[in-house]
Amino acid sequence: MRWWSVRLWGAHVLGVLAVAIAVGMGVWQYDAYNARRAAEQRDLTGAAPVPFASVLGPDSPFPSKDVGRPVTLEGTWIGDATVFVDGRESDDGREGMWVVTPMNVGGASAPAVPVVRGWVPEGTTLAHLGAAPSGEGRVTGWVQPTEGTGQSDPDPTDDILPQLRTADLVQRVDVDLYGAYVVADAVAPADRAAGLDGATLDQLPPASRFTGLRNILYAIEWWVFAAFAAFIWWRYVRDALRDDDEDDEAEDDEGEDDEPAASAADDAVGSAT
To answer: Which spans in the chain are helix H?
Structure first.
């Protein structure tokens, strides 16, 4: 039996499929790693604003290529869902918080986008800010993916969140939320009068070093699996060929043993006659 024997076609097909799928998954993870690196290297903050709906849909994953892109957002404020997001340091080193209010996009029951209206110093309360915005609004700012480092909220009952995470915000509104938020590039006059300063992208928490590393590790894991699948494929075919060769040798040995016996029987018959 040879490598291309019909008896081994099933093993060959299964082996090729396993290796191809594993290699393809590894390449996909590697491309995702490169996409993250490319997105980090691009600075879109100075680009012309585009409509928010052209960047992200209600159920779409956040496109990494649009991190920091300026967008315009129009909708209806959900003032009673205003919260603070802690851990935002000002340019001069003061501890502070973001003031975040969701905005419905496309109607009162449509999904909402959290909007960072501005920055306030640590210790500020919603009562200090006065009435939250209501009615129709329009914002221009930078779009960002929602945060999700797994940091727990020490007091879920207050209005201060440790990070801008969808899972925390969705409990405070009656609509779905987009997988993104917008940092307003300017503070509204009423907010400025209430004591809000401008929020900036420099106040974002540092990106996790393991975000891109996770993709490259997944890629390596898939490629190791591909190598293992190739080894199992080779080992199975080798063993099948070896067993077949051993069977052939055993049959040949039996044939050689039968020939002397037959010759002896013939001689005995000849002598008798």
So the answer is: 9-41, 126-129, 166-169, 189-193, 210-272
